[in-house]
UniProtKB/TrEMBL annotation:
Entry annotated with the keyword Repeat: yes
Chain ranges of the Disease resistance R13L4/SHOC-2-like LRR domain: 620-984
Protein name: Uncharacterized protein
Positions of the Disease resistance N-terminal domain: 61-143
A GO molecular-function descriptor: ADP binding
PANTHER family in the record: DISEASE RESISTANCE PROTEIN RP (PTHR23155), OS07G0599100 PROTEIN (PTHR23155:SF1001)
Domain Disease resistance protein winged helix: 504-574
Length: 1004
């Protein structure tokens, strides 16, 4: 058929004028009958804008599907043929399904039937999206052109997609029947009318907003909980603040922390202890949904009735008829009673800022030293409650190891000494699951104490089946509800993002940036209101962080979380929900596969993969992650895969990744820290690829086809740190070679690390074409003036977009003469890393007013004057002078220098000596000082640590000899005179921490 069309095209060109006219007429008719897409070009442009708008409104991946369907209905009007109406039906039905899913997600409790319907609706939506993605891929994109060329391509496209159109017609008919069946089943079985069928669409009944939710939290004031370990010091500190009468204005104290940490316990015991210092007091629970009138009535009952009982006997109840009063009357009476009194009100469990603002309005500032105590799980709410300079925000911390053990063994055996030796090891594993949460420790100890079997095997079974116990054991019912409150309170879009975290194994250190990129690839996050998708994802993560349901592990000094963990018990909660909803399928020692389900997202934590090593089982997988070694699956079968994460997988080698280039949906690929040494030549087929991570691999050369990836945003390569799996010796380092025509990657925002050699230096100018680039890392293995001039010229062109820059000269000196000529420095640069001999700093560094992080290594700055320019940078928070960065012998920080610096790290090379001095008024915000010494290196202190008012820690890395220990003792003596009492910690060169004897604060 294609050959016939070619022949027709040739005859059209060679025929006489009459034939020409006849053929033209037939051509125009064929053009009108086969495609009408030209007429919708403007509509398509408008539709793309509509797509962006719709995505911003929606709260889940189904909204993306609705946009796809809308685009297809317009763009492919003729190709869809007779089943266009069926597709329109599915689009309308999915809109109702979306509303249904969101309504159900906002309910804390749903019937089993509702959960089943929810799951069925979600599965239909997934299948529709799979169908649309396959069809879109097979029919290809519209071609542009004019006249016969366009006609020819459109005809060919029409004929080639005939089979795909027949397949999608059949699939959509089946999906329509499934959707109809779900709707009819809903009508048959929804006798309780929790879900109603109206006009052919799904609809969930709205929850009543005026109902006061039950307080399912464990009462914190039960006798066995008021004696929690570690509360005495906390309580004493808070009581002192409450009873202090020196400040007469109304003050607020917030107590924030993760559910189960004992916020309510601490507030209640403090309330009881300090109550006698106030004329009246009230303790009320707010919770997620509350009735303002009921809350005010509760406060009035506690404030008025005790006063009346202590005074003369009244024949009339002052609160008689209170149930009939409106909100205005209640607030006025409460304000009158509190106006001249010194009162204490505890508002337990506030969830939102708006709730606080509503309540705060009817608690007057009597200027009598009144106090309000607020407990909340949200750091954002805690901060919003404490805006006055006299207010106080207190973040409650988990119990430390010794406190956790004391509480656990006291509950089971009376004390730790009575615990059998055989149970001590498994006890520590169980306590590790509890994560220092008192409620978890008490609850699990109660579960273990409920049986007379005190054996290692029994306790290990409880440990391994803790997720099941949370679902079934009455001893853990209240703990489960406490944890579920944190999940249920999340908005729809955050629930999906949070559920996704159970992809990672227990205790896994999760990299924040990796998660953000994966959320975007999964369509959980989209650009909105002028923010990029990555910026929106950052906001989502910050919300989870502020709610305390993810916990930072490694932090950067600009306040960003580098790695984090999910609490083990919270992980069990979301794991259960994920399995129920078929959101993620896990394979590992404690997880088994449900073979009747379609696998949408697969994460392998261990175990045997043979049960899913079939095309049918893996054909619907969208996300695949592997955290254990085993048999590699056939990636070619995962035709709809979007995310492939093989990081740290030792069995991932070149032959195993060849087939990924057939996966047309791939957006995120990580081969980090694997044995891969090259990328497939066909990688240019991955037109949707956004993130490619090949760091810490043997990949040095990128295939030329890499430049044909129009959506590539993050290209991460090179090896510049020790590979912890031991794949390569520590002396090896490299970047990926810069390819020709790199400037074609117009969407690139992150490019690190690239290697420029004599064979690739001619491509340096391509960097200047990357107008979206935010992060650039360059390793220069050349020293000729032309190459350095090209690099500086490219950086100048990127001056308005760059935020992070690394220039590394691994085997020689940087070309300072040319580096100093940068005419347009990147003024918005936040992070700068220079590695290589300079002798002095370029003058343009002093103009980087937004620079927050600076790292220098082997720059060999000789004069103290070279550091003066750094001392005046107004935004600098983090300064690291690695080995060889500064070779001078004097370093004095004068008053007013380094005004914002929070961390200073100085690493000295062999036989180097440095006199370090801080004058009074210098580095007033410095919190952490790191000092590192190689052989025979030393720092002579003349004075200074006692002048640093914000200093919290001094960390010393050195050889464990008498000289270094003597130096540490000298530093500890200096620190003891600092009013802030910073800790001084010594770590041996081999990075094994060995603390000298310290007091309870860690001071020497």
């Amino acid at each position: 058929m294609s050959l016939a069309l070619v022949s027709f095209s040739c005859r059209y060109k060679k025929g006489n004028s009459t034939t020409h006219t006849q053929e033209r007429g037939r051509t125009e008719a064929l053009f009108r009958s086969v495609t009408c897409v030209v007429s919708v070009n403007l509509t398509l442009v408008l539709d793309r804008e509509m797509e962006r708008a719709v995505v911003t409104v929606g709260g889940g991946a189904i909204n993306i599907l609705l946009c796809k369907l809308g685009t297809m209905l317009i763009q492919e009007a003729q190709l869809l043929g007779g089943f266009r109406g069926k597709l329109q039906y599915m689009k309308d039905e999915l809109e109702s399904m979306t509303a249904f899913l969101q309504d159900v997600a906002e309910r804390e409790n749903s019937s089993r039937q509702v959960k089943i319907w929810t799951k069925q609706v979600r599965e239909v939506a997934y299948d529709v999206e799979d169908c649309v993605d396959e069809f879109t891929y097979h029919i290809g994109s519209n071609t542009s052109g004019s006249g016969l060329t366009e006609l020819f391509h459109r005809c060919i496209r029409f004929l080639r997609t005939a089979k795909a159109r027949r397949q999608i017609a059949k699939q959509i008919q089946e999906l329509k029947m499934r959707a109809t069946s779900i709707s009819e089943r809903n009508s048959r079985y929804s006798g309780n009318h929790l879900i109603s069928r109206a006009e052919g669409t799904f609809a969930a009944q709205p929850a009543r907003a005026d109902i006061v939710s039950l307080d399912v939290r464990t009462p914190a004031f039960l006798p066995d909980i008021t004696q929690l370990v570690g509360t005495e010091a906390r309580q004493s500190d808070l009581v002192k603040w409450l009873v202090d009468e020196s400040v007469k204005q109304l003050q607020v104290m917030s107590i924030s922390g993760f559910g189960g940490l004992g916020k309510t316990t601490l507030a209640m015991t403090t309330y009881q202890t300090a109550g006698s210092s106030f004329q009246c007091q009230a303790f009320v629970t707010v919770s997620q949904k509350f009735d303002v009138k009921a809350l005010v009535r509760d406060i009035l009952r506690q404030i008025i009735q005790p006063v009346d009982r202590n005074g003369p006997i009244s024949t009339e109840d002052p609160l008689k008829g209170m149930e009939e009063w409106d909100a205005g009357q209640l607030v006025n009476i409460l304000s009158q009673h509190l106006e001249e009194k010194r009162y204490l009100v505890v508002l337990d469990d506030i969830w939102t800022i708006s709730a606080w603002e509503d309540i705060r309005l009817f608690l007057p500032n009597s200027h009598t030293g009144s106090r309000i105590v607020v407990t909340t799980r949200s750091k954002t709410v805690a901060q919003a409650c404490c805006l006055d300079e006299h207010d106080r925000a207190y973040e409650i911390e988990p119990l430390i190891g010794s406190e956790s053990s004391e509480l656990f063994f006291r509950r089971l055996f009376g004390n730790q000494d009575n615990c059998p030796i055989a149970l001590r090891e498994i006890s520590q594993k169980i306590l590790g699951k509890c994560g220092g949460i008192p409620l978890a420790i008490v609850s699990i100890a109660g579960l273990l104490a409920s049986t007379s079997v005190y054996s290692y095997d029994h306790w290990e079974k409880v440990y391994n089946a803790l997720g099941f116990e949370l679902e079934t054991s009455p001893w853990l019912e209240k703990l489960k509800k406490i944890l579920e409150l944190s999940y249920n309170a999340l908005p729809y879009h955050l629930k999906t993002c949070f559920l996704y975290l159970c992809t990672y194994p227990e205790d896994h250190k999760i990299r924040r940036k990796s998660v953000l990129r994966r959320w975007i690839a999964e369509r959980f996050v989209t650009a909105k209101r002028g923010l990029t998708a990555l910026e929106v994802a950052e906001n989502y993560f910050d919300e989870l962080l502020n709610r305390g349901i993810v916990h930072p592990v490694d932090m950067s000094f600009d306040g960003k979380v580098k790695t984090f963990r999910v609490h083990d018990l919270m992980l069990e909660i979301i794991l259960t929900k994920s399995i129920e909803d078929n959101f993620i399928t896990l394979i590992g020692e404690q997880h088994t596969l449900a073979p009747q389900e379609k696998i949408r997202r697969l994460s392998i934590h261990g175990g045997n993969n043979k049960y899913i090593a079939t095309r049918k089982m893996v054909s619907h997988i969208r996300s695949f992650s592997i955290f254990a070694n085993g048999e590699i699956l056939q990636f070619a079968w995962m035709k709809l895969l979007r995310i492939l994460d093989l990081e740290n997988c030792e069995i991932a080698r070149n032959g195993n990744v060849e087939s990924i280039c057939t996966l047309f949906q791939l957006e995120y690929v990580s081969l980090r820290n694997t044995f891969a040494t090259q990328l497939p030549m066909q990688i240019g087929n991955l037109k949707k690829l956004v993130t490619l991570d090949v760091r810490d691999t043997g990949i040095k050369h990128l295939p030329p086809q890499i430049i044909h990836l129009p959506n590539l945003s993050s290209l991460l390569g090179g090896r510049r740190a020790y590979n912890y799996s031991g794949l390569y010796p520590i002396s090896d380092f490299w970047g990926v070679h810069i390819p020709d025509k790199l400037g074609n990657l117009e969407m690139l925002t992150t490019l690190a690390q690239i290697e420029i050699t004599y064979s690739t230096s001619c491509y340096i100018s391509e960097l200047g074409k990357l107008s979206e680039l935010r992060k650039l890392g360059v390793m220069m293995f050349v020293d000729d003036d032309l190459s350095w001039t090209s690099l500086i010229s490219a950086i100048a062109k990127l001056s308005s977009c760059l935020r992070s820059l690394l220039i590394w000269r691994p085997d020689g000196a940087m070309n300072f003469k040319i580096l100093d000529t940068l005419s347009r420095p990147p003024m918005f640069l936040k992070s700068l890393n220079l590695r290589g001999k300079l002798g002095k700093l370029p003058e343009w560094i002093g103009s980087l007013a937004n620079l927050t992080e600076l790292t220098l290594r082997a720059t060999e700055l000789e004069s103290e004057e070279h550091l003066r320019v750094l001392a005046r940078l107004p935004s600098l928070l983090y300064l690291r002078l690695h080995h060889g960065a500064y070779t001078g012998t004097e370093f004095t920080v004068f008053a007013s220098e380094f005004p914002g610096l929070k961390l200073l790290a100085i690493h000295l090379g062999e036989f180097q000596a440095l006199n370090l001095r801080f004058e009074e008024g210098a580095a007033t915000k410095l919190q952490r000082l790191e000092l590192s010494f190689l052989l025979q290196a030393s720092i002579q202190w003349r004075s200074g640590i006692d002048f640093l008012p914000s200093l919290q820690e001094v960390l010393v890395h050195a050889e464990p000899d008498n000289t270094s220990e003597g130096m540490v003792r000298f530093l500890a003596d200096e620190a003891s005179r600092n009013p802030n009492q910073p800790t001084v910690t010594f770590k041996a060169k081999q990075w094994k921490p060995t603390r000298l004897r310290t007091d309870h604060r860690g001071n020497l």
